[in-house]
Each structure stands twice: as C-alpha cells, then as structure tokens.
Amino acid sequence: MAILKILHFPDPRLRLIAEPVKQVDNKIRQLLDDMLETMYDAPGVGLAASQVNVPLRVIVVDISQQKNDPLCLINPKILLRGGSDLVEEGCLSVPGIYEMVERASNIKVRALDRNGSPFEAEVDDLLSVCIQHEIDHLDGKVFVDYLSRLKQERIIKKMEKLRRRED
Ligand code: NI
Q1: Structural domain contains residue 29
Q2: Contact residues for 56 (Cβ-Cβ < 8 A; gap 6+)
Q3: Phi and psi at residue 84, to the nearest 5°
Q4: Domain residues for 44?
Q5: How many domains is the chain built from?
Q6: Residue 20 needs a FRET pair 20 to 30 A away by CA distance; which of 47, 84, 115, 150 works?
Q7: 152 C-alpha to center of ligand 1: Å?
Q8: How far is 64 from 107, CA to CA, in rounded Å?
C-alpha cells in the first residue's frame, strides 16, 4: 500500500473527466487500497481517483467513526435522487475550507465492487452527500463550483497562499 499525493484546487487536473474502468483487475484493487490508505491518513471520509491524478471512475468512502467500513465504488452511477439537504462540506483537495452545499438527501447508486460485481445501494444523509461529492470529482467538478463567485475567488487566493508556503 502507498500514500498517494492529493492534488489541490485549482489544479487543472481536477477538471478532467474520468474514464470508466474497463476491467476490475489487481491493478484497480491496488489503486483502491492505496486510495483507502491515503484517505484514512489524510484523514477524510471520501476520495476520488481524480484527486490522486488517476483519471478513472473510482471512488472510496468511509463515514464510520472507527474507520473500518470502507465502501469502494467503480464506475458509479446515480440512478435516482430524492429530497434535498443543505450540508457543510469539505474536500481533501481544498484543505481548510468548509462551506454549505445543497445535495439530494437520498440517492440510489449503481456501481461495481472491488471484485467487479455490480451492486445497487440506496443511501441517505452523510453517505449520500459524500458519494455525490466524490462522483462530482469524476466529472471534473469540485464543491467550490457551487459557491458564489466571490467565495470562489477568496478560496483560490487562500489556496495560492497555501501553495506558496508549501513550495
Ligand atoms: Ni472532494
């Protein structure tokens, strides 16, 4: 396993549209394991392959307190959306920023698991929000996109300051 480098907003690579996984093989399972390790280390509750510079439709999430309930979704697709919730979100690619975003409160999602078997799940609350946030990454979207122009500009300035400090 390995801890992968997480791209930071506004890195243009976060805007790529991720490609579907053609075959769930050992390489993909290695990617899932590395992504989980990276997410737990950060620590975060979700990570999309796009965030670690792998433009494939792969996400991992774990909203459990004990960090022992990982969910891997390959080629995830939202089949149904219901209700709406305003929830505070953050993102490992936008460190230190937390803002309210409106999402569907419950969704039905279809994906492949780490063995390549298809499954469907109906989820709500935090898990629903988390999966929607991660699938957005696969479509080149970041939660900052939902905020006002003014907030977006402020966040870009903050991120630039952070990057200068890291260089
Ligand atoms: Ni994110």
Answers
A1: yes
A2: 18, 19, 20, 21, 28, 31, 49
A3: -150, 145
A4: 12-166
A5: 1
A6: 84
A7: 15
A8: 19
Q: Is residue 27 part of a domain?
A: yes
Q: Evaluate whether residue 5 is within a structural domain.
A: no
The residues whose Cβ lies within 5 A of ligand 1, an ion, are 91
Tell me the pLDDT of the chain (167 aa) as tens digits: 799 999 999 999 999 999 999 999 999 999 999 999 999 999 999 999 999 999 999 999 999 999 999 999 999 999 999 999 999 999 999 999 999 999 999 999 999 999 999 999 999 999 999 999 999 999 999 999 999 999 999 999 999 998 888 76
Ligand 1 centroid, distance to 47 Cα (angstroms): 6
Q: List residues with catalytic annotation.
A: 134
Using the mean position of ligand 1's atoms as its centre, give its distance from the Cα of residue 157 in Å: 18
Give the Å distance between the CA of 115 and the centre of ligand 1: 25
| Residues near 28 by beta carbon (within 8 Å), at least 6 away in sequence | 21, 56, 58, 74, 114
CATH number of 104's domain: 3.90.45.10
pTM: 0.96
